[in-house]
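Supplementary Note 2. Why include the ligand at all?

Several targets in our set were suspected to adopt different conformations when bound, so apo predictions alone were not considered sufficient. For every target with a known small-molecule partner we therefore ran a joint prediction. The input for magnesium ion is given below.
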Amino acid sequence: MLALNEQREAVGAGAGRARAQVDLCDVRHKFAGGEFLFRPLNATLLPGQRYALTGASGSGKSTLLSILAGWLDPSEGTVLRHGLQSIGWVFQNPHGSARRSVVDHVVLPLLATGASRRHAETQARLVLEAFQLAHRADDAFSVLSGGEAQRLMLARAVASSPDLLLVDEPTAQLDMRTAETVNTALQLVSAGGSIVVVATHDERTADACDQTIALSE
Ligand SMILES: Nc1ncnc2c1ncn2[C@@H]1O[C@H](COP(=O)(O)OP(=O)(O)OP(=O)(O)O)[C@@H](O)[C@H]1O
Ligand SMILES: [Mg+2]
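The joint prediction is reproduced in token form.
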């Protein structure tokens, strides 16, 4: 695997990025007819940092990700987004196009940003190498293992280098070794200057983050 700084250069991450920041001020949420899910949250989320959202099932981790994304307004409190131009989301169950090649999953979002096919393909292959997926580049998405598919989704996220990356349960159902590579991948994304927020039940993933925001004991 390439050294982390080489990987960062490979993905061209962080170049020209405005300084993003997200402030949570006394944020709480309850759905109609329900109780508040978590205590009032206060936090400042900064670039280059990984934040673990921990808590029991139903404590509101995915809900808080939706609030951070701006898809859901919190019932109380405010979310202030400074310099936030792009948000990426890696869902728990990797969704890909079964017959499309692995490399095309990374190429397509790069093309959408205006890159030429040639440049996008070169970049995509470098990113896949950083995520230990180079040998899979020309295979169809459908033949990937769960862990490979999860890494591909992270590779795609790092290629588009969002200011804020939201990741929901990236290591659920993965073996320890595969989970380790996902944790390394998260480190790579934050090293590129993204704010990374990861909802997780996995203590090792939480330990691999810079800070933990606990939604329940
Ligand atoms: N759209 C909704 N309407 C009503 N209740 C909801 C809605 N979405 C989630 N909930 C409820 O809010 C609570 C928190 O859900 P959420 O999915 O945020 O939990 P979680 O911490 O991510 O759980 P898990 O670890 O199982 O993924 C749950 O009780 C859930 O049923
Ligand atoms: Mg959840």
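The radius of gyration is 17 Å. The longest helix spans residues 176-191. Comparable summaries for the other entries are listed in the accompanying table.
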